[in-house]
Write a structure and sequence with these properties.
- By secondary structure, this protein is of the alpha/beta class.
- It contains ten helices and ten strands.
- Helix 2 runs parallel beside helix 3 and helix 7 runs parallel beside helix 8.
């Protein structure tokens, strides 16, 4: 699920509801970011079932976003759900022309939103929607924007830039992986993305890291368990190592923060990820970084 809403509180509420219902969800603050996420998802073969769009947004309102989506043949059959205010009543023709599968009045009751999501996903499965699959021949990028051969979602290599900050990212959600890539690809940070705690331990052993961004909820081994093991390994080596670890949580509760710190993490961030806050956290925990014993 992809949520587009400029209101940070609304984004948090919807993403938490999606998580409770067992849906993978990502919320972004504007249409431009949403379109970039959809394009990257298409190119990586990631299937997005539904886009939930708020109508009242600056620059690109919800109708503008829906028109941009429908003008791109790759997303012509992507399911759209609109969240609208009372003044949108009567615009059914617009929704019909944009093939909007459902629209709900705000504030949308949780059970109605859940029901709408289930209905549109079920309808797409019955009638056959457009899977977001990568084209047979990927578009050729200019040489200046070609990605490094060692960089990719879940791939094994860092960007081969020497003497720069190495950030290891543990995140199993493919949409969130795309978000991290979009935020960090324009920086001079060498980053690597893995999908579970076991892969974190292997990556740390093989190539090391100056900073770890650790999702708390992952398969195989979660972020808390992985952090406990990392701290135990550092202690056993007795070399004074301490790689900073920032936990990434789906909630902003005090209990989540306490659980992160109790496991040995140094800090935490709550989803949805804010690009500005993420870069501030990276700067905070990498200030004056040098090649530590954690780096290989």
């Amino acid at each position: 699920m992809l949520v587009v809403d400029d209101n940070a509180v609304n984004r948090r509420i919807v993403t938490e509801q999606l998580s409770i219902w067992g849906f993978d969800g990502l919320a972004v603050e504007d249409g431009e970011t949403a379109l970039k996420i959809l394009a990257e998802a298409f190119n990586t073969g990631l299937h997005i079932d539904v886009v939930i769009i708020d109508y009242h947004m600056p620059v690109m309102n919800g109708i503008d976003v829906a028109r941009a989506i429908r003008s791109d043949g790759r997303f012509d059959d992507l399911a759209l759900i609109f969240l609208t205010s009372m003044d949108m009543v009567g615009d059914d023709q617009i929704f019909q022309s944009l093939k909007v599968q459902a629209h709900l009045m705000k504030p949308a009751r949780a059970n109605l939103l859940k029901g709408a999501i289930i209905d549109v996903v079920r309808a797409a499965q019955i009638h056959g929607g457009l899977p977001l699959r990568a084209p047979a021949t990927p578009p050729v990028l200019p040489a200046s924007s070609q990605p490094s051969a060692g960089l990719g979602v879940g791939e094994a290599g860092y960007q081969p830039v020497r003497e720069r900050l190495k950030v290891l990212i543990a995140e199993d959600n493919q949409v969130n992986q795309i978000v991290f890539r979009q935020i960090l690809s324009s920086s001079d940070i060498d980053y690597r993305i893995v999908s579970n705690g076991e892969d974190v331990l292997n990556a740390l052993h093989d190539t090391g890291a100056d900073l770890i961004l650790m999702d708390v909820s992952m398969p195989v081994m979660n972020g808390h368990q992985t952090t406990v093991i990392i701290r135990a390994q550092e202690s056993r080596r007795g070399l004074g190592e301490h790689v900073p670890i920032v936990g990434i949580t789906a909630h902003a509760l005090d209990s989540d923060r306490e659980a992160c710190l109790a496991s040995g993490m140094d800090d935490y961030l709550s989803k949805p990820i804010s690009p500005e806050l993420l870069m501030r956290k990276i700067e905070q925990w990498s200030a004056g970084f040098s090649r530590s014993a954690a780096r290989r």
